[in-house]
Amino acid sequence: MKSWKFVKNATHFFFQKGKTFLILFLTLHILINFFIIPALALTAQGILWINKIPYLGYDNFTSIVTKNPLAVLELIALLIIILMLVYLQFAFVFIGIDQLRQDYDQTIWEILKKSWSKIHNLKFSSFPFFICYLIIVVPLSNILLGSPLLDKVKIPTFIEDFFLSNGWMTFIYLAFILIITFLAIRLIQVLPLIFIKNNQITEAIKNSWHNTGPRFWKIIVRFILVILIASLVKFAVIGFIVSFQRLLDLMLEKNIAFYFAIGNLSLIKIIQLLLGIWASALSALIVVVDFYQDEKITNSSLYKNTEIHFKKKLGKGSYTISALIILIISIVNFRNYALFINNHDNTKILEISHRGVDGNNGVQNTIPVLKKTAKLKPDYVEMDIHETKDHQFIVMHDANLKQLTGLNKEPYQLTLKQLTKLKVRENGQSAPMASFDDYYQTARKIHQHLLIEIKTTPHDSKNMLDIFLKKYGRIIVNNHDRVHSLDYRIVDGIKQKAPKIFVSYIMPYNLIFPNTKANAYTMEEATLDESFIFGAKNENKQVYAWTVDDPDDMDRMQFIGVNGIITNELSKLKKSIKTNNKRTTYAHRIWLYAKENSIFDFSTIEN
Fold first, then answer.
1. Spatial distance between the Cα atoms of 578 and 591, rounded to a whole number of angstroms
2. What is the rounded distance in angstroms from the CA atom of residue 371 to the CA atom of residue 356?
């Protein structure tokens, strides 16, 4: 009940000072999303372009460090700038809200001026600590306070899947998440104490740990209440707007309903933006208010007698400014909303079976499961090959054979004849390991196109790619198959030696938009967003999302405009695409978009 009363009082405080909160957060929104992020993205791409670096990834990190030390220094400087901006953003929010909390007789501009003055005078000796602090607190603060600058700070899905695929790994992973969450709560007041009460780092850590100890569960309950209320309001609003759009789809001509759909999507984004501001403001209050308990400032007295002076000073202008800012955001994004609403009419999404499977219908990368899955008519079957000891190619994903065969060897250590005598086992089934020759011959017989992933290791022969292209290059082109690889040397080599082959570069993480010779990008879906797809389309390149097994993620990938989806659940993907193609109403498209976007994400459909 006390937590509910706190949320109620804080909400009352929020609406009393709604004008100021709106401008505070909308100012941040405009600055970060429309100026800072585009400028940072252009700067990062410029650094790569000037230094002739096609992309930034884990596989070329050593090469960049040894051959382009200046680029490394420039990228480190850019990273420091980004972290400083995040530092300033959190400072601006906490200091601004604290000014609202304690000084009622001032204009919005005076509040902003005082906040900037405090930020400007901050001692950046605390900055190194802030980097470590981010690692612990950002996963929690990004849910509740949000920073578009940290949107890509997340664990990739394929890493999560790796940890969750094993019992002990799952236990360790969940234990790690719980520990990080515990530390995040106990240290959540560190930055506000530094910003507002001028604590030194060690003092702030000690005080935060002391303050949050007895109120640990209270803080968690308050955060959960904020999330639940915001979610309920969000889906109630979405439900009403989608129902209204459904009526318009039935009653009006398609062209007219289309413009209403753009307006309704814009309205949903505005409401989500306002809900995000409310949720973030209350989350900040949860953090800030508690460490004033030692000064005997109670939750109830915190919100009294705030309205009269505040309204006299601010007048009506602030709401007008807020309305204009929101209108500008909507106008700027009008084209993007229109593209999203109309996207599905023009895009054929390729259905790609990951490792040739559909659920648990067989053993990955084997001929029996290829035949089964081909009956579902995927556009492509994605499969993997390794070079063998005798410079042939075996169909296998893992660099070590132990998990699927029980033999603790790597493909390069055995000849093709030795490898094809092995049985691979998975999901209670078994099948012979297939040579690429046999697998490819089978695929051609059943008219199944392949997306061939070329796996590389330090043990590959120096002319491995030449052997591959000499034997399969012409067949791949004639059969309209495609190739992709995590190793950019393969991508670059193919475009030099066999430019007619369609080749995609696999990127497990979206950091900086690349400048490569690839025809497409195979992107891990966790960090894949509209801006990356927009950049790819500008360069006439395709984008494949991998590995997308959840139906909601399948919907999201379709409606942000990917060209293909790689999945272990082909039947689910086909059903999802069929459903979305069948339900061509604008109401359905708005629903799919709105339900997939977080309340706490202050971004719009921006590029």
1. 16
2. 9
List, in order, residues 6 or more apart from 448 with CB less than 8 Å away: 370, 374, 378, 381
For position 321, what pLDDT does the model report? 57
Q: For residues 345, 350, 351 and 356, what is the CA-based torsion angle, rounded to 10 degrees? A: 180
The pLDDT assigned to 586 comes to 84
For residue 29, the Cα-to-chain-centroid distance in whole angstroms is 18
C-alpha distances in Å from residue 558, one per residue of 11, 529, 545, 576, 582: 37, 11, 10, 9, 14
The strand pair at 482-485 and 542-546 is best described as unpaired
Question: Within 10 A of 448 (CB to CB), how many other CB atoms are there?
Answer: 22
> What is d(CA 301, CA 524) in angstroms, rounded to the nearest whole number?
50
CB 386 within 8 A of CB 455: yes
Q: Please enumerate, as own/partner, the contacts of 387-390 that have beta carbons within 8 Å and a separation of 24 or more.
A: 387/411, 387/412, 387/457, 387/460, 387/461, 387/464, 387/467, 388/412, 388/414, 388/415, 388/416, 388/419, 389/413, 389/414, 389/415, 389/418, 390/415, 390/416, 390/417
Going by pLDDT thresholds of 50, 70 and 90, the confidence category of residue 145 is low
What is the C-alpha to C-alpha distance for residues 57 and 506, in angstroms, rounded to an integer? Answer: 10
Shortest CA distance to 520 belongs to which of 550, 541, 535?
541
CA 107: distance to chain centroid? 37
Encoded amino acid at 103, one letter: D
* Terminal-to-terminal C-alpha distance of the chain: 43
3-state helix/strand/coil string of 58-71 = HHHHHHHHHHCHHH
- Predicted confidence band at 312 (pLDDT cuts at 50, 70, 90)? very low
Task: With a cut of 50, say whether residue 316 has pLDDT above it.
Answer: no
pLDDT grade for 368, boundaries at 50, 70 and 90: very high
